[in-house]
Amino acid sequence: MYVRTAALRLFPAALLLLTACSESNTKSDTAATGETMASTADAIDSTKSPSPSAASARPNRSAVPDTSYAQDVAAYLGGLRPSQKSNLTTLAEQPAWQAFAKDQDKSWDKYRATHTTNMTKWASTELDEVHRSSPTVFYPFSGPDFLNVFTMFPTSQTYVLMGLEPVGSVPVRASLENPALFPAVKASLWSVLNFSFFRTNDMAVDLKSVELDGALPLLMLFAARTGNQITAIRPVQLDAAGQLLDAPTDTTQAASPNQKSALAKSVPGVEMKLRGPDGQPKTVYYFSTDLSNHGLQVKPAPIQFVRSLGPLTTYVKSATYLMHKLYFSEVRRLVLRHSRYILQDDSGIAMKFFQKGAWQFNYYGTYKRPINLFAKHYQPELTAAYTDSTHRPKSLPFGTGYNWRQTDSNLLLARRLIPLAD
């Protein structure tokens, strides 16, 4: 996978294993209502995460980590030197870490040149109005991708990310001493730094192999590499009503039937407090949850929580066209009813679901047919919009989404024209 040229040639075929959703051509959306995000992911990606050994030491996700240690771990994972007083400095002096850090600097320099610089410049002009009205950004189907949402919305105060990946915990020192750590981190980052999206299940295998047990380690890494300082990390959960609570600290005691019922409907998450590059405070939430209709019927907390956040800006990219489908109608309705702005590529909400006269659209880049895996989600409405000679789309100076080349990528900015739903 590290032979870049060969990897790029094989990329379309590789997506059959890398993306997170597909459905049989012989089944209708109605027949598929029993599917979930997890089942659709398993249907395409045959790379399964190995079951962790019962004897292996596992970090306690409910324990509140030491803040200075968390920041040092974030730096260490990102190939940045930990603070001078950190007990990780001895590890950072070893040749293996120094080689890893040098390689990471090279990869991030390339990413800044091909993505960050152009994305930041584009967002500062095209999203200027959006930035002024976007204290909270909702990013469904995000996985641990704080990198892209922060680059697009650097002035927002709160980021709410949701995905199937488990929450995870701050890595313990034993994990950081594992010689397999650096290749695993490098492999997990490779696709997002080259193609702008994660290979979800491969990423899970890479990280679990070195006991990095979920999204949090990468959220921390991205915070460090985007110039944010971690000031606090708190394990949290959403109760059945969508209320944000501390995660339980003692899971060994026997629970009552009522407690078991409440726990079954709770959604695990993490709250990460940051000090931004400009010194302003920020809060990042990540929740591990199934956003299909079935998942939200079993655990409706995410819907209730997002509704409580007030007017939203929603960001969607590389979302495997899930909100095109009947059995993701609840999260689609949530986004359409509670967003002032929606920034998405064509894998987000299909144009046919936007109420006529309720939205103003700005088109960027180029719309081509979806890659073969998602060919059935072609949208004639987008072709018409992108070929309208009276309202030509604006340029997009960076690549994003499944059509990841800069010359093939698209973004749509939808601005609400009518009042928000109650």
Q: What can you tell me about this protein's structure?
A:
- The longest helix has 32 residues, at 95-126.
- The chain has one domain.
- Residues 1-35 and 38-62 have low confidence and may be disordered.
- The chain has 17 helices and ten strands.
- It has 422 residues and is of the alpha/beta class.
- It has helices at residues 4-9, 11-18, 37-44, 67-77, 89-92, 95-126, 128-132, 146-152, 173-176, 181-195, 200-208, 216-225, 257-265, 293-298, 301-307, 329-338, 380-386, and strands spanning 136-140, 158-163, 229-238, 244-246, 267-275, 281-288, 312-316, 339-344, 359-365, 410-416.
- Helix content is 37%, strand content 16%.
- It is globular.
Ends: how far apart? 49 Å
Rg calc:
21 Å
Main sheet makeup: 10 strands, mixed
Strand content: 15-25%
What is the helix content? Answer: 25-40%
Q: Indicate the overall shape.
A: globular
Tell me the total number of β-strands: 10
- Written as H for each helix and E for each strand, in order along the chain, the element string is HHHHHHHEHEHHHHEEHEEHHEHEEHE
Strand order of the largest sheet: 4-3-5-6-2-1-7-8-10-9
Mean pLDDT over the residues: 84
What number of domains? 1
Please work out how many helical segments DSSP would assign.
17
Helix/strand/pairing category: alpha/beta
**Which stretches are low in confidence, meaning pLDDT under 50 for 5 or more residues running?**
1-35, 38-62
Organism: Hymenobacter arizonensis
Protein name: Lipoprotein
Signal peptide: 1-22
Region (Disordered): 27-66
